[in-house]
């Protein structure tokens, strides 16, 4: 495509988007289409354990006719609603049914959450300083690479599962006999809800939330009337470093003590091989991965689940554990955004709750379908392909939005270079 053709295409797309945004909130057919698309997006996202915010935004903006600020606020409600049902399903269903293939690794969540929240804060500052075109280009390249890598991991997992099935048919071993020790061990480990770990995560969430409320942001005033970028502002902001480090060190110490008391047993099979490989990694890798994912999440302005999910898959965490753990972590990050929107006085709360309820139901539907599909086919790789689908759709939508926004800023003569954080 020649530069002139590309310019003409961007002009047409920009005009089309401006027309759709100027119409305002719609009703009737557009609303029905938006609900159907959001339902499908929530179903696919929940199956992979990601929030789906990058899919909700274009639907709410272009189909439902919301402006970007309102769409972002409603999207936070939708991601939270889907995450709530996802977490409830993973915790309760696995507790009652030992044959569930979707579990939550609370150790990974505890190790990752403080670093991810710290990374988001760092990424937000980078987002302010980086030009729009650089953020868009980095995001598109990153998502495209992750989509490719995740598809590769899914194909590899599918191939391994096929080979295992052929070996089982040749040897004549029954699946029930082979899976019983693994299922029994999972049942013993997952018996009951680890309230201590959940309370620790809540304490992490409250600590970071209090800091954000104290310093305020561009949309709300600080309750302490802290001057943006003043000495008090930076002092409170930098206090996130010792909080994240303190919680991470405490969790590392607790995990090390637990492992010395209850040594891990090696597991067999495809899931066992992946989980053993993940457990052999230094535990410090999870906070580092979460920090990087949080920084990228803050820079790009999307949920951390879309970024940390493929990374966990690449380092060897089983697909079922990755989906359950990521959705659990997304609940904390999305709920923080939700509360912040409520504090600054967002409007259309009823509409946001309606969309959140839709995503709650859609997520359960998606989880039930994917669990039944895995149970019948014996292929956990379906979760990986679900993540790949969300990432591919996100790449397309973000490329579309980003290209139009960059073109609009360029034609308007806005600054296309780096900016100061304050």
From TrEMBL:
<feature type="transmembrane region" description="Helical">
    <location>
        <begin position="198"/>
        <end position="215"/>
    </location>
</feature>
<comment type="similarity">
    <text>Belongs to the 4-toluene sulfonate uptake permease (TSUP) (TC 2.A.102) family.</text>
</comment>
<feature type="transmembrane region" description="Helical">
    <location>
        <begin position="328"/>
        <end position="346"/>
    </location>
</feature>
<protein>
    <recommendedName>
        <fullName>Sulfite exporter TauE/SafE family protein 2</fullName>
    </recommendedName>
</protein>
<dbReference type="GO" id="GO:0016020">
    <property type="term" value="C:membrane"/>
</dbReference>
<feature type="transmembrane region" description="Helical">
    <location>
        <begin position="283"/>
        <end position="308"/>
    </location>
</feature>
<feature type="transmembrane region" description="Helical">
    <location>
        <begin position="353"/>
        <end position="374"/>
    </location>
</feature>
<feature type="transmembrane region" description="Helical">
    <location>
        <begin position="231"/>
        <end position="253"/>
    </location>
</feature>
<dbReference type="GO" id="GO:0016567">
    <property type="term" value="P:protein ubiquitination"/>
</dbReference>
<keyword id="KW-0812">Transmembrane</keyword>
<feature type="transmembrane region" description="Helical">
    <location>
        <begin position="32"/>
        <end position="59"/>
    </location>
</feature>
<feature type="transmembrane region" description="Helical">
    <location>
        <begin position="380"/>
        <end position="404"/>
    </location>
</feature>
<dbReference type="Pfam" id="PF01925">
    <property type="entry name" value="TauE"/>
</dbReference>
<dbReference type="GO" id="GO:0031464">
    <property type="term" value="C:Cul4A-RING E3 ubiquitin ligase complex"/>
</dbReference>
<keyword id="KW-1133">Transmembrane helix</keyword>
<dbReference type="InterPro" id="IPR002781">
    <property type="entry name" value="TM_pro_TauE-like"/>
</dbReference>
<feature type="transmembrane region" description="Helical">
    <location>
        <begin position="71"/>
        <end position="95"/>
    </location>
</feature>
<feature type="transmembrane region" description="Helical">
    <location>
        <begin position="115"/>
        <end position="146"/>
    </location>
</feature>
<keyword id="KW-0472">Membrane</keyword>
């Amino acid at each position: 495509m020649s530069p002139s053709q590309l310019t003409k295409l961007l002009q047409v797309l920009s005009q089309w988007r401006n027309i759709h945004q100027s119409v305002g909130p719609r009703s009737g057919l557009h609303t029905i289409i938006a609900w159907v698309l959001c339902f499908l997006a929530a179903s696919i996202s929940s199956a992979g354990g990601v929030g789906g915010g990058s899919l909700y935004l274009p639907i709410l903006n272009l189909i439902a006719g919301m402006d970007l600020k309102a769409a972002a606020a409603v999207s936070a409600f939708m991601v939270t609603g889907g995450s709530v049902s996802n977490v409830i399903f993973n915790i309760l269903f696995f507790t009652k049914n030992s044959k569930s293939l979707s579990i939550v690794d609370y150790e990974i969540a505890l190790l990752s959450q403080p670093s991810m929240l710290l990374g988001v804060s760092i990424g937000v500052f980078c987002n302010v300083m980086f030009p729009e075109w650089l953020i868009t280009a980095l995001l598109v390249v990153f998502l495209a690479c992750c989509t490719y890598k995740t598809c590769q991991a899914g194909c590899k997992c599918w191939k391994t599962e096929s080979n295992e099935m052929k070996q089982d048919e040749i040897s004549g071993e029954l699946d029930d006999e082979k899976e019983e020790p693994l299922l029994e061990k999972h049942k013993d480990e997952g018996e009951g809800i680890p309230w201590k770990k959940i309370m620790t995560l809540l304490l992490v969430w409250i600590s970071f939330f209090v800091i954000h409320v104290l310093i305020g942001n561009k949309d709300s005033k600080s309750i302490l009337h802290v001057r943006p970028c003043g000495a008090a502002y930076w002092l409170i902001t930098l206090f996130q470093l010792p909080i994240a480090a303190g919680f991470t060190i405490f969790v590392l110490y607790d995990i090390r003590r637990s492992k010395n008391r209850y040594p891990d047993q090696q597991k067999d099979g495809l899931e066992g091989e992946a989980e053993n490989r993940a457990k052999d990694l230094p535990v410090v890798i999870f906070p580092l991965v979460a920090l990087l994912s949080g920084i990228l999440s803050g820079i790009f302005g999307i949920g951390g689940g879309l970024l940390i999910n493929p990374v966990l898959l690449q380092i060897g965490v089983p697909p079922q554990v990755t989906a359950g753990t990521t959705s659990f972590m997304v609940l904390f990050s999305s709920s923080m955004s939700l509360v912040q929107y409520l504090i600054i006085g967002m409007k259309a709360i009823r509409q946001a709750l309606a969309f959140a309820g839709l995503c709650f139901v859609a997520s359960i539907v998606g989880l039930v379908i994917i669990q039944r599909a895995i149970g019948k086919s014996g292929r956990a790789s379906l979760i990986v392909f679900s993540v790949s689908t969300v990432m591919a759709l996100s790449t397309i939508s973000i490329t579309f939005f980003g290209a139009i926004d960059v073109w609009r800023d360029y034609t308007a003569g806005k600054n296309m270079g780096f900016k100061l954080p304050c």
